[in-house]
Design brief:
This protein has 2 helices and 8 strands; from the N terminus they run ααββββββββ. By secondary structure, it is an alpha+beta fold. It has a 5-stranded mixed β-sheet with strand order 1-2-3-4-8, with no helix packed on it. It has a 3-stranded antiparallel β-sheet with strand order 5-6-7, with no helix packed on it.
């Protein structure tokens, strides 16, 4: 955030000595581009649905078949392989990613119709705020 503010101050000072009309358009365009890049970067870091699914590994249906837990392996060749766990609501066909971890071939087990255990974590599939992302462990 500090970097963005310093960049904005630099751009304002750079174009302050020029014609105000020309620099105003360039400044507005630059701020719009910085805004879009910031939103994209935030989503990439904190929105699990932005992560590519990768290679399908396996799927696990809930006891009442309303939900399906799907596991994908993602290998980009540069870093360690990763696992993405996705929950699909079979009634609405809506999917959301809720589990992201370095490759460890997690065990998936349904505890009841709405609770699934993936690896060492339990999730209530109806609660959209429940997710696990290894990148944010402390």
């Amino acid at each position: 955030m500090v970097l963005i503010v310093n960049l904005i101050i630099f751009i304002v000072r750079l174009f302050a000595w020029r014609n105000i009309q020309k620099s105003k358009h360039l400044l507005i365009s630059t701020l719009i581009i910085i805004g879009f890049l910031s939103i994209y970067g935030y989503n990439w870091e904190f929105n699990l649905n932005m992560i590519p699914h990768g290679e399908f590994h396996d799927h696990y249906a809930s006891p009442n078949k309303q939900y399906t837990a799907i596991v994908y392996f993602n290998s980009n060749g540069l870093a360690e392989d990763e696992v993405l766990g996705v929950i699909r609501d079979n009634v609405t066909n809506k999917e959301r990613a809720m589990y992201y971890v370095l490759r460890q071939n997690p065990q998936v087990k349904w505890i009841n119709n709405t609770t699934v255990a993936i690896g060492n974590h339990e999730f209530n599939v109806k609660d959209e705020s429940q997710k696990y992302d290894y990148r944010h462990d402390k």
